[in-house]
Automatic annotation (TrEMBL):
GO terms for cellular component: cytoplasm. HAMAP family: HisA (MF_01014). It comes from Ornithinimicrobium ciconiae. Its EC number is 5.3.1.16. Pathway: Amino-acid biosynthesis; L-histidine biosynthesis; L-histidine from 5-phospho-alpha-D-ribose 1-diphosphate: step 4/9. One of its GO terms (biological process) is L-tryptophan biosynthetic process. Belongs to the HisA/HisF family. The active site is at residues 11, 133. CDD domains: HisA. This is 1-(5-phosphoribosyl)-5-[(5-phosphoribosylamino)methylideneamino] imidazole-4-carboxamide isomerase.
């Protein structure tokens, strides 16, 4: 797997661009720029993809960013991977019809894997990204939270990802929640484990990336892409620098 993709991220809450600290809705940083303006900046910097998250819907269900999604697709050349609150087959169809290139499914992918596996078969493996975001449990195992990371499940990360691999999954996103929004560096041990466990799945790394060396690090361990949020928004890493790493 030689292709590597930079996914600049825009997380939206109450219409504003935000970042959460370790997934905590009470620890939010808001940014002044409008979501469309940020997306246009990433496109102008050379990005080909955008990772768009509806944080309100991630917790409560009911994706709310259709107008923004349509604007981004109409006014930029970006392919958009988006999710938050996707709970039904109709939700997937609606997002694809609105212009999404891929739909991200998180909570339901953990709660109803057979349902989501059927959607992968129906819509096509390249149209769905399964998000198996994890935090370290008290016993050292990887816990998979749902509902915008507000409720823990008892599902095993490796076992679930292997199930999806057998079901034809092509794209998986895994955020180390303990590093999300912290600028503490990506968890390379986690991504080494995942890319070895499911070498036929394109794994997207997320959480903690600070600079170009971190981008190189996740690429070196076999990831097919990296989600970049706070580092871009706060100017610690420019989109130009990130895209340079994509093209190496």
């Amino acid at each position: 797997m030689t292709d590597f993709t930079i996914y600049p991220a825009i997380d939206v809450r109450e219409g504003r661009v935000v970042r959460l600290h370790k997934g905590d809705y009470d620890k939010e940083t808001r940014y002044a720029s409008e979501p469309l303006e940020v997306a246009q900046g990433y496109a102008e910097g050379g990005a080909s993809w955008l990772h768009l998250v509806d944080l309100d819907a991630a917790r409560a269900g009911g994706y709310t960013l259709i107008p923004l999604l349509r604007e981004i697709v109409a006014e930029t050349p970006l392919s958009v991977q988006t999710g938050g609150g996707v709970r039904s087959k109709q939700d997937v169809a609606t997002l694809l019809e609105a212009g999404a290139s891929r739909v991200v499914i998180g909570s339901l992918a953990i709660q109803e894997p057979e349902t989501v596996a059927a959607w992968i078969a129906e819509f096509g493996a390249d149209r769905i990204t399964v998000a198996l975001d994890a935090r370290t449990g008290e016993d050292g195992s990887w816990v998979l939270p749902t509902a915008g990371w507000t409720s823990d499940s008892e599902t095993d990360l490796a076992a679930l990802l292997s199930h999806y691999s057998r079901s034809g999954l092509a794209h998986a996103l895994c955020t180390d929640i303990g590093r999300d929004g912290t600028l503490s560096g990506p968890n390379l041990n986690l991504y080494t484990f995942l890319t070895r466990a499911v070498p036929d799945v394109a794994v997207q790394a997320s959480g903690g990336t600070r600079h170009a060396a971190d981008v190189r690090g996740v690429r070196k361990v076999g990831c097919a892409g990296v989600i970049l949020g706070k580092a871009l928004l706060e100017g610690r890493l420019s989109i130009d620098e990130a895209i340079t790493e994509e093209r190496v």
